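Appendix B, record 7
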Amino acid sequence: DVTDFFPTICAAAGVTIPESLTIDGRSFLPQIRGEQGHPREWRYTWYNPSGGPKAKAEWAQNNRYKLYADGQFFDTQADPKERSPLAADALDANARAAREKLATAIAEFATARPEGVAKQGQAFGGEGDSQPKKKEKAGKKKKAPKA
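Structure tokens (predicted):
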């Protein structure tokens, strides 16, 4: 996960991360050194292209399953284009366990974005006071840049 780079670089440099600094990453330096380490069982993504306070998309996934914050759950090996969400009442024991783990991962990050940082971001559209982007007039093409 990209959040793991900061603690990995700090560990490699011998820099201690202050306890007062809350981070959501973990060092993968042991794996780089060929040691066991503590690799993640999942990856978490919160996405808003302009950094606003609401996510355009939020999910957690492992090597097989992907759970969105809105509850949609997919087997990405069997359905890589995520066309058919799995029904919660039709999951086998392995899928149920994965769904629970991924839901816990999403919940873990519920308060990960400090209010001050979130307020600095821009809305992605449909978020609060956002302004819709102007649409290009039909039939009008953009001019190609001069070479």
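Remarks on this record: The chain has four helices and four strands. Confidence is low (pLDDT under 50) at residues 128-136.
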